[in-house]
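Weekly puzzle thread! Below is a chain. First person to post its structure in token form gets bragging rights.
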Amino acid sequence: MFLPNSLRTKIEEISSTYSHQSLKESSTHLSQVYREHQSVHQDLDRIAYLSTRMPATFASISRVLQEIPTLKIESILDLGSGPATTLWAAWELWHTRYQCPCLERDQSWINLAKQLEIQKFMDVSWEQKDLLHTNELPQHDLVVFAYSLGELPTTSTSSTKPGKPHTKRLFSSNQERLMATAKSLKHVSASFSKADTC
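Winning reply:
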């Protein structure tokens, strides 16, 4: 699944102010950051993310959203929203204007998400908040906690590569973190077993 035209245009516009070489170097640095399960902290790395990693993330989230019935969805809570990839995927799939609160700990990601202008298609509100220090959230019809799950602190590591058939192993290695975070959020719950597949 391809990025929406309006999103792709904005990414090209933002990226055009940087040299191809600098973006290439940042893309390499991004790979190292994710191998070490770290967060993105450099502005140029965030720009490189838009063109090198956001398309694959968009496709993965779109595939998951296709499994969700939409009849009763009026709001989407995006946890660790980054550049709002989840909301773009929801818009491209359903073309419905939802209420969309986004929680993101990094103000720079919030600023970049606003530059991409998802707010033209969704009623978006952003709040800078660290999920590890969040004990209660209002209820929403759909709660999405996507790739930011991999940035939560853990004592274990995984060598799983995005897009490879090791997704189940990565998911299993993060179950304890997911459950701990879910239980800390009043209206978010999850249940998994060793037999679950993804």
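Puzzle host: Confirmed. Bonus trivia for everyone else. Residues 155-175, 183-198 have pLDDT under 50 and may be disordered.
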